[in-house]
Amino acid sequence: MNPPQVRAPVLDDVPAIARLHVRCWQQTYRGLMPDAVLDDPGLVDAREKQWRRGLDDPAPHTRRAAVAVIDHDIVGLAMSGPPLDDDATWSRQLFNLYVDAAHHGSGAGHDLLQAVIEPGESAALWVADPNPRAQAFYRKHGFTPDGTTTVQDGVTELRMVHTPTG
């Protein structure tokens, strides 16, 4: 298998990104989120609209997006932007980072994270709890839980933050 190539997405990528986003949700949240949400026939269209808005933002410098491509197929996606949390003390928030399960361990997740969060930048994210694989990935990359939780779409989420040292 070829290694992933990470690049900025373009608007023509949006349908493939939306399909991948939904597939990753189904892989990740099955059993945590109601099947009716994961299997909603309108979910791909909703994600397509979300990604189109995110990539067609009139202030694109506020968001960073990346896709991981292997053999011309988009296998991973990531997006970060300004913090949304009212109590934010960090400069970036990771909104999305998903890699198709068939490509876990390929390095795509690491490369995507580096593409949307710069070294030395403070950041936070919300991760499903339980989701031991994702939580271990983020811990490996310097994120630690700050004790804050919330429930979104029926899924408990744990906030993890990264505050660079030095």
UniProtKB/TrEMBL annotation:
<dbReference type="InterPro" id="IPR016181">
    <property type="entry name" value="Acyl_CoA_acyltransferase"/>
</dbReference>
<protein>
    <submittedName>
        <fullName>GNAT family N-acetyltransferase</fullName>
    </submittedName>
</protein>
<dbReference type="InterPro" id="IPR000182">
    <property type="entry name" value="GNAT_dom"/>
</dbReference>
<dbReference type="Pfam" id="PF00583">
    <property type="entry name" value="Acetyltransf_1"/>
</dbReference>
<feature type="domain" description="N-acetyltransferase">
    <location>
        <begin position="4"/>
        <end position="165"/>
    </location>
</feature>
<dbReference type="InterPro" id="IPR050832">
    <property type="entry name" value="Bact_Acetyltransf"/>
</dbReference>
<keyword id="KW-0012">Acyltransferase</keyword>
<keyword id="KW-0808">Transferase</keyword>
